[in-house]
Amino acid sequence: MFIKSNTKLFVSLSLLLPLISACSLLKLNQQQDTKRVSQVLQKPGVQLWADNCSRCHTMRSPDSYSDAQWDVAILHMRIRANLTADDAKEIVEYLKLAN
Amino acid sequence: MLVIPIFLWRLRDDLIFEGELELELEDDITHVSLEFAQLSYLFNDYVTIGVGKFLNPSNYFVERLHPTWINKLPDRPITMGGVNSIQAGSQLGLQVRGGIPIGTMRGEYAFYVSNGPSMRDDGTLSFEDFTDGNNNKAVGGRIGWLPFTGFELGYGFKVAGVDDLNGDRLNVITHVIDLNYLQTSKFLLGNIDIRGQYANRKIDRSSSPTLAFENKSSGGYAQIAYRPSLSGLPLLRDFESVLRYDWIELPDAQDFNDEQRWTVGLNYYLAASTMVKFAYQFDDKQGVPNDDALIFQVTSGF
User: Fold this and answer.
1) Assuming Cys at both sites, which of A42, B111, B156, B206 could form a disulfide with B164, CB separation 3.0 to 4.6 Å?
2) Residue B37 sits in the same domain as residue B58
3) Bridge-partner residues for B256, per DSSP?
C-alpha cells in the first residue's frame, strides 16, 4: 500500500515537475520578450529609423535582414543619404536588436 | 523588362564598394550597362570620400529616388533622362560627402570633381564621361538642410566646360533646387509625400553658325503622393495615389520642343518594396499632336 502511494506520488511529481518547469520557462520567455520589446522601443534608433528611412522609401521590417546584412545596408545608406555617424549607429543597433 | 542588381561589399568597417548593373531586355536583345561602381572610404564621422562612377550628387531625384521601387510613378521626370536631360545621371570622378548635426537640425553636403560632359553637334550635352574629352573637369555639389523631421531643402550646382564645333571652350553652369516633405498624419489618416526639383542650365553662346542661339534649358517637377496607411479600412492602406507635373523649356532653336506633362497614378503595394503602378500621362509637347499614354509597371526591390 505504502509502495503504491509512493509510486503514485512519484508519477504525479514526474508529470507535474516538467509542467511547472515548462510554465516557468514560458513565463521567463514572456518576461524576456517583454523586456526585449521594451528595450527595442526605448532605443533612439526606432525614431531615427522611422524618420530617416522613410525620407526616400518605404521601410523594410527589421527582420528582413540578418545582423551582418543590416551592417552593410546601413553603411550603404549612411553614405547615400548622408546620415550622421551617430544616427547610423543608433539605427543599426535598433535593427539588430529588433530583427 | 529591367533587372537591376546592386552589389554591396563591405571590405572593412570604413570601406565599402557599391555597384549596380542594369540589364534591360528590349526586342529580344539584352542590354547591359554599369549604372555606378564606387569605392567609399569613411574618413571620419563627417567626411566620406568616394571614387569611381557615382550617381550625380547634385541631382536628388537621380541619386535617391530613381530606383523603380522608390519612384512613385512608372517613368522619370522629363529633365532626368533622354537626349534633353538637363543634369547628368552618373559621372566618373571623386566625391567628398557627409552629414553634420546642427543642434536639432541636420546639414548634409556632397562635392565632386568629375570628367565633364561633351557637346553634341545640335548643342545638347552628352554626359557619357568615361574619358575626359577636353581636360576640363566638371565641379559640382549639393548642400542639404533638414530643419525638422520630414523636411529637406537642397541646392545643387555643376560647373563645366565643353568644346563647340569650332573647338571653342564654352562654360556650362547648372543650378538645381530640390524640396522634399514627408509626413505621417493621423488627421490625414496616412502618409503625404511632396517632392519638387527645378534645374536651370546655361551654356555660353557659340560662334558656330549652327549653334548661334541662347543655349538655356530649364525644367523640373512637382509631385504629391498620398497613402492612407492609417485608414481603418485595411484594403485602402496599400493603395497610393500620385500626381506629378513636370516640364522642360529648351532653347528657341530648331529641333527643340518644349514639353509639359501631367501624370496621375495609382499604386498598390504588394509588400514594402513591391508594387504595381498604373498611371495616365497627359503629354503636351510642341510639334507633337497627341502623346498621352497609359503606363503600367510592376516593380520589386530586394
Assistant:
1) B206
2) no
3) none
Q: Closest Cα partner for B36 from B18, B50, B48?
A: B18
* Residue B287, in any domain of the structure: no
Q: What percentage of chain B carries pLDDT values higher than 70? A: 99
| Residue B175, strand partner residues | B157, B200
Give the range of the structural domain holding residue B142, as residue numbers without chain letter: 43-235
Q: Is residue B74 part of a domain?
A: yes
Q: What is the SS3 assignment for A74? A: helix
Residue B104 sits at the chain A interface (C-beta within 8 Å): no
What pLDDT digit, counting tens, does each position of B166-202 carry?
888 999 999 999 999 999 989 999 999 999 999 999 9
Minimum distance, in Å, between the CA of residue A85 and any CA atom of chain B: 5
| Residue B110 touches chain A, beta carbons under 8 Å | yes
CATH architecture of A43-99: Orthogonal Bundle (1.10)
Domain co-membership, B21 together with B72:
no
**What backbone torsions phi and psi does residue B124 show, to the nearest 5 degrees?**
-80, 170
Q: What is the tens place of the pLDDT at every residue in A4-17?
A: 556 665 656 565 66
In this prediction the ipTM stands at: 0.89
